[in-house]
Specification:
- By secondary structure, this protein is an alpha/beta fold.
- The strands form three sheets. The protein has a four-stranded parallel beta sheet with strand order 1-12-10-11, sandwiched between helices. Strands 3-2-4-5 form a four-stranded parallel beta sheet. Strands 7-6-8-9 form a four-stranded parallel beta sheet, with helices on both faces.
- Helix 9 runs parallel beside helix 10.
- 43% of the residues are buried.
Length: 283
Amino acid sequence: MKVELANTAGFCFGVKRAVEMVYEQAEKHKGERVYTFGPIIHNEEVIKDMEERGVSVIHSVEELEDLKDGTVIIRSHGVPKAICDILEEKGIPYVDATCPFVKKIHKIVAKKSAEGYHIVIIGNGSHPEVEGIKGWAGDGATVVQTTEEAERFKIASNKVCIVSQTTFNYNKFKELVEIISEKMYNVIVLNTICSATKERQEEARGIAKRVEAMLVIGDRRSSNTQKLFEICSNACADTYYIQTLDDLDMNQLRSVETVGITAGASTPNKIIEEVQNNVRIII
């Protein structure tokens, strides 16, 4: 019986940095109001722990505008420029925990938009990271997630700058870029998929090909975990998506000899270790 854990499983650099920043601010402002604009990362267990330490989540612009005091922490996924503008206008101190790789995309789209390029964001339009990027792209941007959307893409401007959500599937990104590039626009393509994301996806795919069952651990709202599950499912028929050990039916693993484990970038090591240790015991 063999259990193979991905070396890349768990917190990435940007998530680790953001979580540490929240705990630092909670300690620094103990007894005062500390907020995050949106959940700092997509993991319910981490958010619950932060709430127990006095950190509240602001879920909307309306809540933000009603704020009178306290310190606000910008989530790791980043926010539209308008959110930062509101905080500055109200004079509310804020700490920017946006992942540096996402922040780099904000700067790119702001610059290219000012140069007259229409921005195309390859990613999930409802994901907060993409919403944030779009909010730095000047007068407008187009979000493309599917082949159909890429084929329908059409604008009057000839200048197009393509970027990607940091956690998007790399192979899908290349496919969509190729479709748009064939439309004879003056296209600049900037592959802004995080290198850690690509490494995590490639390692997960490799493990899934070798094992009889694959476990993907992460929050249901986590985009990068969803992509991992999709990749692993294509390589291993018996792939299971779980948030914690409680979601795992151990009976599903009793008849297999090899199990692979990977986890999204927002999954704490504590949860990964708990799953790994219990799987080892069962099989």
